[in-house]
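ok, trying the design again with the full structure, not the truncated one.
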């Protein structure tokens, strides 16, 4: 996942502009959903997710901590903040254009993760809190969960970084205690669009830089749990 220079290549859209663009892109005059261009749409339903990746050094450190708590997903799920959890769509091209548009209108921002929290007893999850950048994540989630990705979620969206999931209660306690003073700050300059393939693997389809039309694809893949589908919000 890209986490390089914090300088944007291109200008961000105003709040009103991005809302109008998204509305115009996915609603025709009669109020029915419509694709932005005339590319053929995939008729079969697929599942997608959108995440913010971390710089390699921080991601590696959190992966080692997660493994130390006995979480088997540490080996296959990179540290991340989920923006859109597993969401079905029947139009891949419209979905891709939608996510690209949101990325184009987003400026890079700083994220600080610090301290721990938990979704217990609702879900056996301990996470690191998102402090700086929390509202940016919420705003991105709101914009992304429109158009072809619109759906009602069972819980309010709550940005977080999972550090232990579905392990023994004592391991959850340990994770919550050991990392209570953890803190890291880093720039976020892109977001990844993933597709859930037939093998049950999350495939990175595009890494979309904020504030630009350009997208990159680094071929990252990881398993189902990477979308953090269990917990309050993703």
């Amino acid at each position: 996942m890209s986490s390089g220079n914090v300088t944007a290549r291109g200008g961000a859209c105003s709040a009103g502009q991005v809302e109008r663009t998204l509305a115009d892109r996915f609603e025709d005059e009669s109020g029915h959903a419509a694709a932005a261009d005339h590319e053929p749409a995939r008729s079969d339903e697929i599942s997608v997710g959108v995440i913010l990746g971390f710089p390699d050094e921080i991601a590696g450190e959190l992966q080692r901590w997660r493994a130390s708590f006995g979480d088997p997903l540490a080996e296959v799920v990179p540290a991340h903040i989920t923006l859109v959890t597993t969401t079905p769509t029947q139009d891949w091209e419209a979905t891709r254009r939608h996510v690209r548009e949101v990325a184009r209108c987003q400026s890079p921002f700083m994220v600080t993760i610090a301290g721990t929290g938990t979704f217990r007893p609702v879900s056996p999850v301990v996470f690191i809190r998102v402090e700086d950048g929390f509202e940016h994540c919420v705003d991105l989630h709101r914009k992304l969960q429109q158009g072809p990705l619109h759906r009602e979620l069972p819980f309010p969206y709550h940005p977080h970084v999972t550090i232990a999931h579905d392990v023994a209660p004592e391991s959850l306690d340990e994770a919550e205690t050991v990392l209570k003073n953890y803190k890291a700050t880093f720039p976020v300059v892109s977001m990844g669009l993933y597709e859930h393939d037939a093998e049950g693997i999350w495939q990175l389809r595009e890494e979309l830089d904020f504030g630009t039309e350009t997208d990159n694809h680094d071929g990252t893949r990881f398993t189902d749990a990477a979308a953090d589908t269990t917990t309050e919000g993703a």
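Keeping the full-length input from now on. The first strand starts at residue 46 and ends at 53.
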